[in-house]
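Build the 3D complex.
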Amino acid sequence: MSEQIHILCVEDEPDVLDVVVRELSVLEDVFPVEAAASSDEAREVLAEIEAKGGSVGLIFCDHIMPGENGVEFLVTLQKNENYRDTRKVLLTGQAGLDATVKAVNEAGLAHYIAKPWDADELVLVAREQLSRYVAARKLNPLPYLKHLVMDIVGDTLRDSLKSDR
Amino acid sequence: MPTTNNFQKMLLSKKNIGLVLGLGALVVMPFLSLPDLSPAGHVALGIFVMASVFWILEPIPIYATSMGVILAQVLLLSDQNLIKGWWDAQYEGGYQAPAYTDFYNTLANPIIILFLGGFSLAAAAEKYALDRNLTRIMLKPFGQRPANVALGVMMVTGVLSAFMSNTATTAMMMTVAIPIVARVPVDDPFRRLVALSIPVGANIGGIATPIGTPPNAVALAALARQGTIVPFSTWMLLATPLVVVTLLLSWWGMCRMFRPGIQTFTLTIDSKFQRSPKAICCYVIFALTVGLWVTEKLHGIPSGVVAFIPVVLLPALGVLDKKEIRGFSWEVLWLVAGGISLGLSLRQTGLAEWMISRVSWENFSTTGLVILFGLVGFAVANLVSHTVSATILVPIAIALVLPQAGGDPAALIIPIAIIGIIVSYSMILPISTPPNAIALSTGLIETKDLAKAGWLVGILGFVFSVLFGLLLWPLML
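Done.
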C-alpha cells in the first residue's frame, strides 16, 4: 500500500475555503483534500491524518486569521521534523512584506498565491508542489502519477523503478 | 495452536530449508567417498552444491552467495586453506593447491572489466540524458501507426539494452512511455502492447553484445577459460541477426495478441541534446568505445582493454563523479566473478570431468546436448536469475562439449553461446527478470499478459537460437 498524501487548506472565511476545496477536488481521487478554519483546527486535522498513517504533502494557508496567523502556523510546522518536506503555500491578499519574508526564511515557503487567484493556476501550483514533495521524499511516484508533473518526477520515477529489484 | 503453526512455518521456510541444505552439503560432501572423485573434487562439489542451493532458494542475497563462493574456495581449496591437516591426510605428498590470489583475480577478469566499462558508459549516458535523446531520435522513423510505434519502442529498447543494463533501460523507457500511454483509453490493448514491448525489447536486446546482460559474460568467461577468446564483434555478428529476427517475430505475434484499438499515436519525448563540454565528452567517449568494440577484428585491441578507457576517461574528465561510480551495480560484478571462480575449481579439481563421467553422454549428439541444456536453462531461468542459471549450467555444459569439440573453437563457441543466450529469453513470470517486475509494477499490464508474451518470446527464442546456432553460425565462424 502506498502512503496516502493529503492536501490541507487553512482559511477562516467559510466561502473562500469552499471555493479552494472545490477547485482542488479535481485532484481528490489521488490526493484527499482536507479543510480547516483555523490553525488550531488545522493541527487537529494533521493529528488525524498522522493517526491514519497518512502524510500531508501540501498546505494552502491564509495569513490573516483569528488567533495564530498563517505565517506563524507555518513556522511552527517547519520546526516539526514530520512536516519539513510538506510544501507550504500562502494563499492570501494581506500578508505584508515582513510576514512574507518571515514565511520565506523561517517556514520554507514554497510558493505565494495572491488573492484573487485563478482556478487553473491553483491546480497547477498544487500539481507542481505535490510533485516536488514526492521527489523530495523519494517516494515511488507511480501511484500518484496521474496528477504529477513529469518534468519534476521523471528522474525519481526512473530511479524508483530501477531500485528495489 | 496458531503459534506452533507459525513456528513450523518459520522453521520450514524456503530460506531455512536452503540454509540447511546448502551448509549441509558443504560440510557433508568432503566426508563422502564418491568413486573416482578426488578429495579436492569432493570439497569443490560441496561448494558447488551449496552455491546452487543458495542461488536458487536465496537464504542470503545471490551476490552474497557469490562472494561466499570465493571465500569458501580461499578458505578450503587455496594455498592459504585452513584445513592443511585434512589435506595432508588425503593426499600423499601433499595437495597441489592453487594460489589464493587466483580466486580473487576473478574480480579483475577481462570480462569483469568489460562490464565495468559498460557500467561507466551507461552511467554517463544516463547522467547526460543521452539514452533519452537517442530514444527520441531513433523513434522518429517509426511514425504514428500504433503497431509501428510499438515496434519502434521494442527496437529502441533493444538497441539501448545491448549497451546498458536491461533494468536501467526498462526503467528509462517506462518513464518515457507511461505518461503518454496513460492517455490511451484503459480498455485499449495498445497500452499493454507498449508496456510489454519494453521488457521484451530489453530482455532480447541484451543478447546482442557481450556487455548486454551478465549471462553473455558467463558464457564468454567459460569459453575464455578454455582458451577460446570470442571478440566483441564476433559475438555481435552471431547474436544480432538472432536478436533482430526474434524481436520482429515477437512484435508480430504480440500485435496479434494485443490488437491496438486507436488509429494513430504520437510518442513525444521532451528532451534536447545537452551541449555542455562534459556532455560532449560523454558522447565522444561513448561513440569511441563502442566504435572500438565493434571493430575489434580490424585493430585487434581486445574489448577488455578498450573497456578500461571509459572507466578512466569519464571520471578523469569530470563526466562521472564519485556519486555515479558508487552507483554502479557492483553486486553484478561479484555475481559474475563468483561464477568464474567456481568454474575455476570445477576444472582444477577434476569435478567437471567427474560429473560428466557419471552419465553415458555418448548417446547425446552436440545438438541433443544443446537442446537438453537449453530446455533446462529456459525452465530454471524463468524461476531464478538469468545470471545464476547460466552460472550453474554453463560450466557443466562446457565440460560436456569439450571432448566432442576436439579442439575446434567453433564447435565450442556455438553450443555454449546458444545455452548462454537461451536463458535471456526466459521471461514468463514477473520474477523471471527485473524488466518484467518493472513492467508489472507500472500497473499497465497484468501477470497473465506477461505470461502470454513470455511464452511467445520463449518459444521463438528457443527455436531460433537452436536453428541459428546449428545452421547459420557454423557458416559465420
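Chain B touches chain A at residues 167-168, 170-172, 174-175, 178-179, 182, 270, 434, 437-438, 441-443 (CB under 8 Å).
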